[in-house]
Amino acid sequence: MMLLTGVLLLLLILVCGWQGLTIFFSLGLNFVVIILALVLIAGGFNPLVVSGLLSLILLATSIFMNTKQPLTAKTAFVTSLLVVLALLVIIVPISHWAATYGFGAEDAEEIEGFGLAIGLSFPQVGMIMTVLASLGAIAETSIAVASGLVEILEYDEQMAPAPLFKAGIAIGEKIIATAFNTLFFSFFGSFLSLTIWFIQLGYPLAKILNHKILIGEILTLLIGVIGVIATVPITSWLVNRFRKSPTTQTSLEKKVNSD
Questions:
Q1: Would you call 62 exposed, middle or buried from its count of C-beta atoms within 10 A (0-12, 13-18, 19+)?
Q2: What SS3 string covers 206-248?
Q3: For residue 148, what are the contacts with CB-CB under 8 A and spacing of at least 6?
Q4: In 3D, which of 134, 141, 142 has the Cα closest to residue 71?
Q5: CA–CA distance, 19 with 69 (Å, rounded to integer)
Q6: Are 234 and 167 in contact (CB under 8 A)?
Q7: What's the CA gap between 244 and 178, in Å, rounded?
Q8: Residue 223 contacts by C-beta under 8 Å, 6 or more apart in sequence?
Q9: Residue of 67, 220, 45, 230 whose CA lies nearest to 132
Q10: What's the confidence (pLDDT) of residue 109?
């Protein structure tokens, strides 16, 4: 592990220069924050409150420490918060109806000697896992779209809001497919061994498709994709909101010239 960590740091410095140190430090800080959040949840703190604070810290460190352009960082941060809050409206009822939280039947042997009355709400823990699984893809998409639009504004500061919004959608169309593949490959890779186990044990297809662990991960994947798709138009709209209005600039220039 230490060897791979050293290789990671070396590659970051070689590719990103001294900015790689900032990226590495933010990664380490996020790791510490996640461990602290787990300790707080295990200690009896409300999981939803802890996850809310955790999301704020993770987004702040990941975006503001690694994004030098103020408009890009501000847009990505606000967009990520709005999308996560909107996803909670979907996550809460789906987690309740799907009932995919907790342990599966395959875990019975491992947890047989342990007590489950540990004072934690497994539905709330499941919601936290879904939010954290979607957070990285949402922030990455928002930064990519915002960065592209900011570069366009550097060449054409007076671009009207409508063409700029369409440009954001065009950028997002290319990112959505990549983000979806990233989430899908992550899901498939993490459950490859479990899938092979299902096949080797002769599980019928209907039982595999209705397995709580598998369904829970599929729901997490779909919610993450929904979040990525929603991120594109919201980011494009916020860039228009946060930049200086070209209409206002033009009217001020005309007033100055007339005076």
A1: buried
A2: HHHHCCHHHHHHHHHHHHHHHHHHHHHHHHHHHHHHHCCCHHH
A3: 167, 168, 171
A4: 142
A5: 14
A6: no
A7: 31
A8: 87, 90, 91, 94, 130, 134
A9: 220
A10: 54
Q: How many Å apart are CA 169 and CA 154, to the nearest integer?
A: 18
Q: Please give the single-letter amino acid code of residue 233.
A: P
Residue 18 tokens, joined: 């001294």
At which residue do the structure tokens 């498939």 appear? Answer: 188
Q: What is the mean pLDDT of each run of 10 residues along the chain (259 residues)?
A: 77 76 77 80 76 81 80 89 85 71 56 58 72 82 89 84 88 82 72 72 71 74 86 90 58 39
Whose structure tokens read 């430090």? 25
Instruction: Note the pTM of the prediction, 2 decimals.
Output: 0.74
Q: According to the 3-state scheme, what is the secondary structure of the chain?
A: CHHHHHHHHHHHHHHHCCHHHHHHHHHHHHHHHHHHHHHHHHCCCCHHHHHHHHHHHHHHHHHHCCCCCHHHHHHHHHHHHHHHHHHHHHHHHHHHHHCCCCCCHHHHHHHCCCCCCCCCCHHHHHHHHHHHHHHHHHHHHHHHHHHHHHHHHHHCCCCCHHHHHHHHHHHHHHHHHHHHHHHHHHHHHHCHHHHHHHHHCCCCHHHHHCCHHHHHHHHHHHHHHHHHHHHHHHHHHHHHHHCCCHHHHHHHHHHHHHC
User: Token pair for residue 149?
Assistant: 């639009």
Which tokens is 36 given? 């602290």
Distance, CA of 82 to CA of 169 (rounded, Å): 18
